[in-house]
Design a protein that fits this description.
463 residues; alpha/beta; FAD/NAD(P)-binding domain; Enolase-like, domain 1; seven-stranded mixed sheet; 33% helix; 26% strand; globular
Length: 463
């Protein structure tokens, strides 16, 4: 006889494990299925957490080699111990995944180890054992998108997974795709000494970002040594010994050329991962991109079966999945779970960081919304000068008639932390004036947000 639960969550990534924990807190008998040897999904194991560990380590290395002298710190020759850097990354990952395991035990969540497949609308099978639940949540995440003509071996041609595990710094790293993941991992290896070339099909990097921010971002990365080949596509990749030869063509047609690299990072996006789930057995529908179809309450076309996170439509962000997990668990408990998708921030963890929430100028123009913009450069911020990190600016967009904050875009030091104030403002319907009237401690980077809010009304103090 199948073991029964109130809620079974398939996948223990940020969406899945948070949903499981919140459901357990609300009194449900909960199980979570995970086929990895550790909990946490892509994010904790081979994504967000290990990449941020390497970003921090590589940033420290770069500062020691190039930045400390400006602060009067002489440390002599700086040497890279990549093996230790990689080991530390592993320690960070382990601490996080063990932390989730602890939380499962604390909340009495059953970890079902193995890969799940549906055998009916409310029944799954894992490693030959059947389980049933009143509510089943699909939270299987996403995987790296393939590219025709570019075969991944995770050694010479790698996805983000392989790029996190390189045992030596490549002489030349070619990144296919000018999005977040490619630029973050490109930053890691650039700081450690690699030549980095980014090939992007479109005519600018980070195409969903506010255009002015994107342009400034590219200029800063170029100063850091990045090379960009925009408006081009890779049509073939051939591994020859310890090199990879890429065939590159203009996106709009033209003569092909070849580029040689030591390592190629394929980073053109991600796709919803449902492999092996046997969705057909439950009659669960997917859209044209393979994402699980859901309604406004995360329910699929099959009553009692739900989906959240990367496996459904929307931004593929860990914190978006977490919010959906909490909202779904609370909805199942009869509460009013809700996610405001207009207040989901996004962050690029390069240095400087890039963060945004709400609408871009391009989106506002396309929608015919009359707006005002306020900008403030970090060059004019006292704390940024003291840190020696003055690249970038804060840009706020407010509705012209009401002054309601519609979007916030930051490129600069600690942008990922600074954006939280703007997220709060948008969540609660605040105006630029509201942000401007709040007292911000001095000297802090957050004063740049206040000044940008003042600039919306053309009354910034420090420029």
């Amino acid at each position: 006889m199948a073991e029964a639960f109130d809620v079974i969550v398939i996948g223990s990534g940020p969406g899945g494990y948070v949903c499981a924990i919140r459901a357990a807190q609300l009194g449900f008998k909960v199980a979570c299925v995970e086929k990895r040897a550790t909990l946490g999904g892509t994010c904790l194991n081979i994504g967000c957490i290990p990449s941020k560990a390497l970003l921090q380590s590589s940033e420290n290395f770069h500062e020691a080699a190039h930045g400390f002298a400006d602060h009067g710190i002489q440390i002599g020759e700086v040497k890279l111990d990549l093996a230790r850097m990689q080991a530390r990354k592993g320690e960070v990952v382990t601490a996080n995944t063990k932390g989730i395991e602890f939380l499962f035990k604390k909340n009495k969540i059953t970890w079902i180890k193995g890969a799940a497949k549906f055998t009916g609308a409310h029944e799954i099978e894992v490693a030959g054992t059947a389980y049933t639940a009143k509510h089943i949540v699909i939270a299987t995440g996403s995987d790296s998108a393939p590219l025709k003509g570019v075969g991944v071996d995770e050694k010479r041609i790698v996805t983000s997974t392989g790029a996190l595990e390189l045992d030596k710094v490549p002489g030349h790293l070619v990144v296919i795709g000018g999005g977040v993941i490619g630029l973050e991992l490109g930053s890691v290896w650039r700081r450690l000494g690699a030549e980095v070339t980014v090939i992007e099909f479109l005519d600018r990097i980070t195409p969903t970002m506010d255009g002015e921010i994107s342009k400034n971002f590219q200029q800063i990365l170029t100063k850091q040594g990045f090379k960009f080949k925009l408006g081009h596509k890779v049509t073939a990749a051939k591994i020859e010994g310890e090199k990879v030869t890429l065939t590159v063509e203009p996106a709009k047609g033209g003569e092909a050329e070849t580029i040689t690299a030591d390592v190629v990072l394929l980073s053109i996006g991600r796709y919803a991962y449902t492999e092996g789930l046997n969705l057909a057995a439950a009659g669960i529908e997917t859209d044209e991109r393979g994402r699980v179809k859901i309604d406004n309450h995360f329910q699929t076309n099959v009553p009692g079966v739900y989906a959240i996170g990367d496996v459904v439509a929307g931004a593929m962000l860990a914190h978006k999945a977490e919010e959906e997990g909490v909202a779904l668990a609370e909805t199942l408990a009869g509460q009013h779970g809700h996610v405001n998708y207009g207040a989901i921030p996004s962050v690029v963890y390069t240095w400087p960081e890039v963060a945004s929430v709400g609408q871009t100028e391009e989106e506002l123009k396309a929608a015919g919304v009359a707006y005002k913009a306020g900008k403030f450069p970090f060059m004019a911020n006292g704390r940024a000068r003291a840190l020696g990190n003055t690249d970038g600016f804060v840009k706020l967009l407010a509705e012209k008639e009401t002054d309601k904050l519609l979007g916030a875009h930051i490129i600069g030091p600690d942008a990922g932390a600074l954006i939280a104030e703007c997220v709060t403002a948008i969540e609660f319907g605040a105006s630029a004036e509201d942000v401007a009237r709040i007292c911000h401690a001095h000297p802090t980077l957050s004063e740049a947000v206040k000044e940008a809010a003042l600039a919306v009304d053309s009354r910034a103090v420090h420029i």
